[in-house]
Amino acid sequence: MQIRVLGAYGGSTPRHRQTSFLIDGTVALDAGALTSSLELEEQAKVRAILVTHSHMDHVNSLPFLVENVFGQVEGPIEVIAPPEVVASLKAHLFNNDLWPDFTRIPNHLLPIVSFRTVTPGEPFGVNGLTAVAVPVSHVVPTYGYLISDRKASVVFSGDTGPTDAIWRRAAQEKNLAAIFVECSFPDALQQIADVSKHLTPKTLAREMEKFPPKVPINVYHMKPPNAAAIAAELRALAAPRLRLLDDGDALSY
Ligand SMILES: [Zn+2]
Ligand SMILES: [Zn+2]
User: How far is the CA of 172 from the centre of ligand 1 (A)?
Assistant: First the structure.
């Protein structure tokens, strides 16, 4: 499994792109930076986008991706998520107000984008991969994903505070090759992290006790103004399996 980190952050500056990963060139996880990181021909290869939740730093490039690949792809791009997330994207983004409803363009029989609603906890296939959505703990309905090919599985936390179900599920995966987990704020902003349901290095260290041992941990979704402080605090944890992700990183499992 080849994973490109298109956007490693939970915010945007010219040097920090918002959360997006690309798996095997065709399946995206979140859409914070698909159009700012991929060339047009790479964008046209994206066949499906798994969405963790409706927040802007995870979906804002969706409208522009859909527009860019219009007329260049066969069959609709699938936007995949559990029901509440799909409902939110339909109601608030592709609503003919913020952006056209591309599920009816050019017409409802041959749309450029289609939503696929998945049931949490139930595995589904997506472009040769198997995935499952597991609810996590954030201020809007949010899901982490376990994604597997024949060789390896990886888990993405989504935006979350301390949580359990997804780590229990990850611990059952026999080929778990990597954990991707958010860490949004430094310890000094613990209160903000708690009310906005995110992790700090301190609460991440506690979450790590739920992780299967030895599996590499890739940290993402740092808020740009806090990225340096988070990096220093994670280094102080002296956990060799922790890696802070950056835009453009490429991982292979
Ligand atoms: Zn976020
Ligand atoms: Zn969020």
Answer: 26
Ordered mean pLDDT values, 10 residues apiece, the chain (253 residues):
98 98 98 98 97 98 93 90 98 94 83 94 98 98 98 98 98 96 98 98 98 96 98 96 98 98
> From ligand 2's centre to the CA of 10, what distance in Å?
8
Provide the greatest CA pair distance for the chain.
55
What values do phi and psi take at 167, rounded to 5? Answer: -75, -35
| pLDDT at res. 111 | 85
Q: Which pair of tokens denotes residue 215?
A: 């599996």
- Rounded CA-CA distance 28/80 in Å is 10
Other beta carbons within 10 angstroms of residue 169's beta carbon come to 16
User: Counting ligands in written order, which one lies closest to the CA of residue 12?
Assistant: 1
State in Å: Cα 234 to ligand 1 middle.
19
Q: Which residue has the tokens 């990850």?
A: 170
